[in-house]
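Tokens help. Consider this.
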Amino acid sequence: MNIHFKEFFIELADCSCCPRNCHVDRTKINSGFCKSDASFKIGSICNHHGEEPIISGKNGICNVFFSHCNLQCVYCQNIQISKNVQTEVEYKLSFNEIISQICHWLDKGCETVGFVSPSHCIPHIKLIIHTLNEKNYYPTFVYNSNGYDKVESLKSLEGLIDVYLPDFKYYNSKTAKQFSDANNYPDIAKDALLEMYRQKGSSIIKNNDGVAVMGLIIRHLVLPEHTSESIQILNWIANNLSTKVHISLMSQYYPTEKVQNHPILGKRVEREEYDSVVEAMDKLGFTNGWIQEMQSADNYQPNFLKAHPFEYL
């Protein structure tokens, strides 16, 4: 057993890789918040062209979607793979199968590997990265998280992750508790973003094809009736990081079946709501990033029951 596998099992034997700090032995049980053991539980490994243009590029990104999650957002857009109990779609792949599938897409021309919902699988990520490097694969690695990340875990990824792609979901702890069962999310996310910014700064380095190879992009999904909270988030980023940071402001929220009858989350974001957040972003002086068309809500509804959940894109 090489040193990377040893470290993998040591970390999971007393798991505290995410802010839940469950301290369970995932090499033996799956009783922590995320209900994950040491195995590689995957929702999908696919070539995805639907990320921000600077991430997808012309060849797409090989995204590794981990199943389960350290948040349980009631409106989760990837609910088929994110539930910690009775997950609808989950593949328990061997480590060699995962490496083989990633290499397949890299050999097909993908230059980037993205880890999606990775916060509870940081030991898995590090093992994948080290193994790919040992096989002489050196793609750009993207850490695509919900923002609920421990600073200590992020520090362990320094030099391994090239591009951080976190969410900043909530500014208010009441909202975070109500929607994601994590009242400390705002403070955790702020500390995580400060660490990511320390590692990457506000500039994005691109290759000759215009694809990001180093940097930080912060995503924020505007929710119905929560524009004031969205603006608070933008204010915090402007005052504590930089207005040069790349922001991906998303209008793509749609109510999943679970929240269709929810008084707030059971509807889509109104154009006026989204436009008010865009206006605030402009007034704050943000100059880098992306906004979405309102019809984006129709275009980003993955179906993980299919071999390729995003084949409609």
